[in-house]
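Sample intake sheet
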Amino acid sequence: METLTIEPEKIDVVSILITVGVGLLVWTVARFIILRITRRVASGSSLFKKPHFKWVQPAIRALDHERRSQRAQTIGSLLTSLVSVIVVVIVIIYVLKYMNVDVAPLLTSVGILGVAIGFGAQQLIRDFLAGIFITIEDQYGIGDVIVTSEVIGTVESVGLRITRVRAEDGAIWYLRNGEILRVGNRSQGDYVPIDTPSPDDDGENKVSAGASAGTAAKPEEKSSE
């Protein structure tokens, strides 16, 4: 009687090692390029002022001042995290493939899960996107006095999701970036405070007005006599 022997499928160890090595190499090169560009932008390099880089100048023009170092580091950190996630996901998929794991159902499940998370985290994604554009466009930064529909105060920190503002009365406000629909920056423009008369000034003005009216009425009384 013949015995049926089933040989287990072999795992392609060489391909797995090559995939991991290529992933590490791509991540290292991408991180090096991002850090290089970030340092040049932070130091005010004239690389992007050349004629063939005119298309990118509007996006980085806002970084060309005293806060460009902070903005460049934030953008560089964001790009590094994004590249890391992409490389890790691709490497994991190929490693599972070389381990003879059926990747198609897994990708389908991940896609459905991603759609569900996307619907549930719409506000979170909106906050992050708004934070990215606030950072790139340098709408405001630490130390700026801003005016929003909720509060007037000084910016203490700017994150990708939350902006922390100290109001004039000392209260700390945490503003979600996606809900800041309109903001005025008093530190960037030529803001001039409007002189509002104080209560004492109003009283003095009323007294002076009354005195002037009394002096104007006295000649009329003399003329009637």
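Comment: Residues 32 and 80 are 9 Å apart (CA to CA). The chain is about 55% helix and 10% strand.
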